[in-house]
Specification:
There is one protein chain. By secondary structure, this protein is of the alpha+beta class. The protein has ten helices and nine strands. It has a four-stranded mixed β-sheet, with helices on one face. Strands 3-4-5 form a three-stranded antiparallel β-sheet, with no helix packed on it. The chain has a two-stranded antiparallel ribbon with strand order 1-2. Helix 2 links the parallel strand 6 and strand 7. It is globular, with a radius of gyration of 22 Å. The structure holds glutathione. The site of glutathione has 12 residues, from helix 4. Keywords: Detoxification.
Amino acid sequence: MAISSSSSSLVTNNNSSLFSVSARPQILVTSSLPFMSTTSIHFHYSPHNKLHLRQRFNSVTKSCDVRVTTLAISTGYVLCNKFFHHPLLPLHLHLPYLMELPGLYISYKCPYAQRVWITRNTKGLQDKIQLVPIDLQDRPSWYKDKVHPTNKVPSLEHNNEVRGESLDLIKYIDTHFEGPSLYPSGHDDKEFAEELLSYTDTFYKTVVSYFKGDVTEAGTAFDYLETVLSKYDHGPFFLGQFSLVDIAYAPFMERFQPFLMDVKNYDITVGRPRLTAWIEGINNIEGYKITRSDPKELVESYKKRFLANP
Ligand SMILES: N[C@@H](CCC(=O)N[C@@H](CS)C(=O)NCC(=O)O)C(=O)O
């Protein structure tokens, strides 16, 4: 696709186009994601040139068939995503004007990023926090250079600051954005929630450490969850009602359950009625459903990652 404008410089390659929106800013990066092509525009952001930018940007984009969104505006980047085919992308990506939304950088395959994505969905922030998908296999250099120096996802850009770490981010979003609270207010509940949140890492490492050995040993980790799920009986979730704790575990259970069944013929729900009810419960949460991956793909990816010979 050609982009033409009297004011824009232009370079094209296979599926990406580059242009700058003013004389001073330079063209920087492109990134080719599996389901779309991306154009990145670099500019020097300041409140003074915002209007000017908007006008210039509109004039450029009007002249071509681009569906545009603005991402990462405060880091000085605009990504124009073209030809979206991905069913998970929000509709407002089609708006042909600049949107200055906080950007949530994720990979659709990353369980840590999934936590934050679920939190955003569950709080109803789909049009308040913009998803920015990053292809981890082909990471654009601007991500590390200009957004998140650790080069990991997830990260969130909000109020001109970029933050990382999924467990911190889900709490950050819960407290800094509107929507139903997903964290308890009572002292004891908070303490219990913190205990469970800090166990997520141990849970993950314990289960994974038995992938190549006797997986029934990993049963202790699932048994622990079965036990803690008995604390509240006003709902199937860790704190009774759905919370950040469920969000922290869901992406990993989504992977462990089909993988252990497929590879080890080990059904994590057998003898664990509360865990069974919990899995049913999270599978009914809309904000989670939309983030789920194809279980077959998850199993294949775990096989490659954990069972391939070194
Ligand atoms: N502790 C981090 C882990 C994030 C993480 O490891 N993300 C992976 C993708 S699932 C990543 O970005 N890996 C790229 C890399 O390590 O360079 C969190 O909870 O956010």
